[in-house]
Amino acid sequence: MIEFDDSLNVSAIEETTSSNNNNNLSNIWSETINNNNTNNNSTQDVVLLHSEDFLELYLQKCSDYSIQKPCSRLIKEYSKLKEKGKRMRHLILNGNCVSMFENRLQNLDVFSICDTLEILNTSFIVSCDLSYNNIGDSGANAISRMLKINTSIQHLSVKSNAISERGASDIADALKENHSLKSFDFSYNSIEDKGGLKMAEMLKENSTLKYLNLNACDLKTSSITLLAIVVRAHPSLRELRIAKTVMNSKKEETVVHLSEMFKVNEILRSLDLSFQSLSDSGVTVFFQGIMMCRTLTHLRLSANCITLSTDIISRFLENPNCALQLLDLSANRIDSDGGKQIARSLIKNKTLIHLDLSNNNIGDDSLTFLSKTLLSKNDVLKKLMIADNKFSQPSIQAFHDLTKERFDIEIDVYTYKTDQTYYWTRKTTPLKYEHNVDTKEEQVAEIEQLLVSCFADNVNPMTNLDRIVR
User: Domain span at residue 143?
Assistant: First the structure.
């Protein structure tokens, strides 16, 4: 397993590196990828040359395309790193930051960037974030051409752009040939069913992708079904996100295919099925299918219609085969009986670390039972989201006592006592990335950690990319 140090600043690496700097995240994954070339001095010289040429070539391409205003953020970040004797490793041009909010990338801007990456094939740029811009199908075509040639980019995000089925088809064709990209975030692009089918077809030939996010892409039943069938035999995919689809009345049939994945696939660790309007019958079918699964560790089922199916969810959590570490059941219709069933299952469960039951209809008795269970019968759970349920005095007092006794558990409610009365309030969580400056250290660190995990020989799912940019 590859070790990494979270305390390091990984936004860039020094031009001169030492063989003893093995804890630097960038060096770790670079050595893993290029373990056959670490002693090749001529290759290193070419990389340094390309690093110097990058900005010059980018500006030349802007001139070729008659772009009057080159991307100021790119120029600023590159120049700032160069002054420090460092080179750019992450091309972070998300359109929802302050410097780009009113200057989001258009198709023409993407042409110049992709041409630069295509010509230089720069081995020092390992991630590219083009999310929240105005990139359409012609921009996607430029990205696809770049992906067919560039072998250095490991993480690519085009989240929340204007790419349709045609652009998805171009990128999918490129990924059939690209074997270096490990993480691809295509969420919030309306590629619809045809685009989803193209992505599924791509996975038949791409055997290196490890993270695929297709949330809110307007996928329908046929594309989700094909994705499920293809992923059964996929040799590398660890995390699949297909939340917010537009499945039709054949949801249960589709859910069967999704559960069948885990009867064959031993690589996939994380699945997101949030915002699907799944009924109790669909959820029951899914859990019946994964009852013998020993590999699924992260499951997100928020914003569905779960009520009575908490019975089979509880039985799954009590199952010795259960390997779940994270279970998200937020924003469902779980009542007091369901809440108590989940709480009772935690007595036997020894794997669940993160449980989200917020925004349900769990009553006071069940909340009290849950807190007492965590106080005396379960010491495994470390994070509980329970806000916006039906708290009253007994349950608030129970959670107040729990937080006084167990300091190792993080709970999203804050309790306090005033004049013999207990109160609770949701803990205010500050936004991870307030867009008052541009490149965030956390943003870069998340990408670096994800890249390290791509090459690590472990069973953990990929880093949550939603935390990179909010």
Answer: 50-163
